Amino acid sequence: MRTDELIGVLAKDAPPAPRGWVERPILLAMLGGGVVTFLVVALWLGCQPLEAALRQPWFWMKTTYTGLLVVPAAGLSMRLARPGGRSSFAPLAILAILAIMAAIAARQLFQTPAEHRLAVWLGATWRVCSPLILLLSVPIYAALVLALRTLAPTRLTQAGAAAGFLAGALAATIYGLHCPEQGAAFVATWYSLGILGATALGAVTGRLLLRW
Protein backbone atom coordinates (compact mmCIF):
# COMPACT_ATOMS: atom_id res chain seq x y z
CA MET A 1 0.00 0.00 0.00
CA ARG A 2 1.33 3.41 -0.97
CA THR A 3 1.75 6.17 1.60
CA ASP A 4 -1.07 8.27 0.10
CA GLU A 5 -3.43 5.29 0.23
CA LEU A 6 -2.49 4.54 3.84
CA ILE A 7 -3.12 8.15 4.81
CA GLY A 8 -6.51 8.00 3.11
CA VAL A 9 -7.48 4.85 5.03
CA LEU A 10 -6.33 6.28 8.36
CA ALA A 11 -8.12 9.57 7.75
CA LYS A 12 -11.41 8.00 6.70
CA ASP A 13 -14.24 9.15 8.95
CA ALA A 14 -11.75 10.93 11.19
CA PRO A 15 -13.05 14.06 12.96
CA PRO A 16 -11.54 17.46 12.07
CA ALA A 17 -8.19 18.13 13.68
CA PRO A 18 -8.26 20.60 16.58
CA ARG A 19 -7.47 24.14 15.57
CA GLY A 20 -3.76 24.92 15.91
CA TRP A 21 -2.76 21.29 16.40
CA VAL A 22 0.28 21.79 14.15
CA GLU A 23 1.08 25.46 14.74
CA ARG A 24 1.08 25.32 18.54
CA PRO A 25 3.85 22.69 18.99
CA ILE A 26 6.08 24.37 16.40
CA LEU A 27 5.67 27.81 17.97
CA LEU A 28 6.27 26.44 21.47
CA ALA A 29 9.40 24.68 20.23
CA MET A 30 10.65 27.94 18.70
CA LEU A 31 9.98 29.73 21.97
CA GLY A 32 11.56 27.08 24.20
CA GLY A 33 14.58 26.49 22.00
CA GLY A 34 14.97 30.22 21.42
CA VAL A 35 15.05 30.91 25.16
CA VAL A 36 17.82 28.34 25.62
CA THR A 37 19.81 29.83 22.75
CA PHE A 38 19.31 33.34 24.11
CA LEU A 39 20.60 32.25 27.51
CA VAL A 40 23.67 30.70 25.87
CA VAL A 41 24.34 33.95 24.01
CA ALA A 42 23.73 36.15 27.05
CA LEU A 43 25.69 34.05 29.56
CA TRP A 44 28.49 32.70 27.35
CA LEU A 45 29.08 35.09 24.45
CA GLY A 46 27.61 38.22 25.99
CA CYS A 47 25.30 40.75 24.37
CA GLN A 48 26.64 43.95 22.88
CA PRO A 49 25.38 47.25 24.38
CA LEU A 50 21.85 47.08 22.95
CA GLU A 51 20.89 50.66 23.76
CA ALA A 52 23.52 51.87 21.31
CA ALA A 53 23.01 49.04 18.81
CA LEU A 54 19.27 49.67 18.51
CA ARG A 55 20.05 53.11 17.09
CA GLN A 56 22.24 51.73 14.32
CA PRO A 57 20.97 50.80 10.82
CA TRP A 58 23.34 47.82 10.59
CA PHE A 59 21.73 46.20 13.64
CA TRP A 60 18.31 46.37 12.02
CA MET A 61 19.74 45.19 8.71
CA LYS A 62 20.90 41.96 10.36
CA THR A 63 17.75 41.50 12.41
CA THR A 64 15.45 42.16 9.46
CA TYR A 65 17.31 39.72 7.22
CA THR A 66 17.32 36.79 9.61
CA GLY A 67 13.91 37.63 11.05
CA LEU A 68 12.35 37.62 7.59
CA LEU A 69 13.86 34.19 6.96
CA VAL A 70 12.22 32.87 10.12
CA VAL A 71 8.69 33.62 8.85
CA PRO A 72 8.56 31.44 5.70
CA ALA A 73 10.74 28.81 7.38
CA ALA A 74 8.19 28.48 10.19
CA GLY A 75 5.36 28.23 7.67
CA LEU A 76 7.28 25.58 5.73
CA SER A 77 7.93 23.53 8.87
CA MET A 78 4.24 23.68 9.77
CA ARG A 79 3.18 22.48 6.31
CA LEU A 80 5.69 19.63 6.25
CA ALA A 81 4.61 18.55 9.75
CA ARG A 82 1.33 17.37 8.22
CA PRO A 83 0.99 13.97 6.51
CA GLY A 84 1.77 14.45 2.84
CA GLY A 85 2.49 18.15 3.45
CA ARG A 86 4.12 20.02 0.57
CA SER A 87 6.39 23.03 0.54
CA SER A 88 4.06 25.52 -1.21
CA PHE A 89 5.51 29.01 -1.88
CA ALA A 90 7.78 29.22 1.18
CA PRO A 91 11.00 28.15 -0.61
CA LEU A 92 10.42 30.88 -3.20
CA ALA A 93 10.01 33.45 -0.44
CA ILE A 94 13.24 32.24 1.18
CA LEU A 95 15.11 32.41 -2.13
CA ALA A 96 13.79 35.93 -2.71
CA ILE A 97 15.03 37.10 0.70
CA LEU A 98 18.43 35.51 0.10
CA ALA A 99 18.65 37.12 -3.34
CA ILE A 100 17.75 40.57 -2.02
CA MET A 101 20.36 40.28 0.71
CA ALA A 102 22.95 39.12 -1.82
CA ALA A 103 22.15 42.14 -3.99
CA ILE A 104 22.57 44.50 -1.02
CA ALA A 105 25.90 42.83 -0.21
CA ALA A 106 27.11 43.11 -3.80
CA ARG A 107 26.17 46.80 -3.87
CA GLN A 108 28.11 47.41 -0.66
CA LEU A 109 31.22 45.68 -2.01
CA PHE A 110 30.94 47.54 -5.33
CA GLN A 111 30.87 50.87 -3.49
CA THR A 112 33.82 49.91 -1.25
CA PRO A 113 37.35 50.76 -2.44
CA ALA A 114 39.06 47.66 -3.80
CA GLU A 115 41.74 47.64 -1.10
CA HIS A 116 39.11 47.44 1.65
CA ARG A 117 36.70 44.91 0.14
CA LEU A 118 38.27 41.83 1.68
CA ALA A 119 38.20 43.40 5.15
CA VAL A 120 34.54 44.36 4.72
CA TRP A 121 33.66 40.87 3.53
CA LEU A 122 35.58 38.98 6.23
CA GLY A 123 35.00 41.36 9.12
CA ALA A 124 36.77 40.41 12.34
CA THR A 125 34.83 37.25 13.20
CA TRP A 126 34.34 35.34 9.94
CA ARG A 127 36.11 32.26 11.30
CA VAL A 128 33.67 31.82 14.20
CA CYS A 129 30.42 33.33 12.92
CA SER A 130 29.05 30.42 10.88
CA PRO A 131 30.12 27.69 13.37
CA LEU A 132 28.58 29.65 16.25
CA ILE A 133 25.26 30.04 14.44
CA LEU A 134 25.26 26.32 13.69
CA LEU A 135 26.04 25.53 17.35
CA LEU A 136 23.38 27.93 18.63
CA SER A 137 20.80 26.37 16.33
CA VAL A 138 21.11 22.97 18.02
CA PRO A 139 18.81 23.68 21.02
CA ILE A 140 16.16 25.11 18.71
CA TYR A 141 16.47 22.22 16.27
CA ALA A 142 16.23 19.70 19.11
CA ALA A 143 13.03 21.35 20.35
CA LEU A 144 11.59 21.36 16.82
CA VAL A 145 12.41 17.67 16.39
CA LEU A 146 10.54 16.87 19.61
CA ALA A 147 7.59 18.92 18.36
CA LEU A 148 7.59 17.26 14.93
CA ARG A 149 7.68 13.82 16.50
CA THR A 150 4.32 14.58 18.11
CA LEU A 151 2.92 15.35 14.64
CA ALA A 152 2.95 13.28 11.46
CA PRO A 153 5.50 14.37 8.86
CA THR A 154 5.92 11.97 5.96
CA ARG A 155 8.63 13.78 3.97
CA LEU A 156 11.23 13.32 6.67
CA THR A 157 14.29 14.71 4.90
CA GLN A 158 12.41 17.82 3.79
CA ALA A 159 10.84 18.28 7.22
CA GLY A 160 14.25 17.94 8.87
CA ALA A 161 15.82 20.43 6.45
CA ALA A 162 13.00 22.92 7.04
CA ALA A 163 13.36 22.56 10.82
CA GLY A 164 17.12 23.00 10.49
CA PHE A 165 16.71 26.13 8.37
CA LEU A 166 14.19 27.54 10.84
CA ALA A 167 16.52 26.78 13.75
CA GLY A 168 19.44 28.37 11.93
CA ALA A 169 17.53 31.53 11.02
CA LEU A 170 16.22 31.96 14.57
CA ALA A 171 19.66 31.24 16.04
CA ALA A 172 21.22 33.81 13.69
CA THR A 173 18.67 36.40 14.82
CA ILE A 174 19.56 35.78 18.45
CA TYR A 175 23.29 35.69 17.65
CA GLY A 176 22.91 39.20 16.26
CA LEU A 177 22.46 40.40 19.84
CA HIS A 178 26.12 39.52 20.35
CA CYS A 179 27.70 39.97 16.93
CA PRO A 180 29.39 43.37 16.40
CA GLU A 181 29.77 42.99 12.62
CA GLN A 182 28.18 45.75 10.57
CA GLY A 183 28.66 44.81 6.90
CA ALA A 184 25.89 43.51 4.67
CA ALA A 185 28.47 41.46 2.74
CA PHE A 186 29.57 39.81 5.99
CA VAL A 187 26.01 39.00 7.02
CA ALA A 188 24.98 37.76 3.58
CA THR A 189 27.93 35.34 3.54
CA TRP A 190 28.71 34.10 7.01
CA TYR A 191 25.25 34.31 8.58
CA SER A 192 23.82 32.54 5.56
CA LEU A 193 26.47 29.81 5.70
CA GLY A 194 25.62 29.17 9.35
CA ILE A 195 21.93 28.90 8.48
CA LEU A 196 22.65 26.58 5.56
CA GLY A 197 24.83 24.46 7.84
CA ALA A 198 21.88 24.03 10.19
CA THR A 199 19.73 23.16 7.17
CA ALA A 200 22.18 20.45 6.13
CA LEU A 201 22.21 19.09 9.68
CA GLY A 202 18.43 18.87 9.61
CA ALA A 203 18.35 17.19 6.21
CA VAL A 204 20.90 14.57 7.24
CA THR A 205 19.38 13.75 10.63
CA GLY A 206 15.70 14.30 9.86
CA ARG A 207 15.10 10.92 8.24
CA LEU A 208 16.38 9.18 11.36
CA LEU A 209 15.08 11.48 14.11
CA LEU A 210 11.60 12.03 12.66
CA ARG A 211 10.87 8.42 11.76
CA TRP A 212 7.55 7.12 13.09
Secondary structure: helix percent: over 70%
- Straight-line N-to-C gap: 17 Å
**What number of structural domains do the residues give?**
1
- The overall pLDDT average reads 90
Morphology: globular
Secondary structure: number of strands: 0
> What is the radius of gyration?
19 Å
Quick one: biggest sheet? none
User: How many separate helices?
Assistant: 9
What is the N-to-C succession of helices and strands? HHHHHHHHH
* Uncertain stretches: none
Strand content: under 5%
The structure class reads mainly alpha
Q: Can you walk through the features of this model?
A:
- This protein has helices spanning 3-11, 23-45, 50-53, 57-80, 90-111, 117-122, 126-149, 156-175, 184-209.
- It has 212 residues and is an all-alpha fold.
- Helix 5 runs antiparallel to helix 9 (184-209).
- The model has no long low-confidence stretch (mean pLDDT 90).
- The chain is built from nine helices and no strands.
- It has one domain (57-209).
Summarize the model shown.
This protein is mostly helical and 212 residues long.
Topology:
Blueprint lengths: L2 H9 L11 H23 L4 H4 L3 H24 L9 H22 L5 H6 L3 H24 L6 H20 L8 H26 L3
Helix pairs in contact: 2-7, 2-8, 4-5, 4-8, 5-9, 7-8, 7-9, 8-9
What descriptors fit this protein?
globular; mainly alpha; 212 residues; single chain
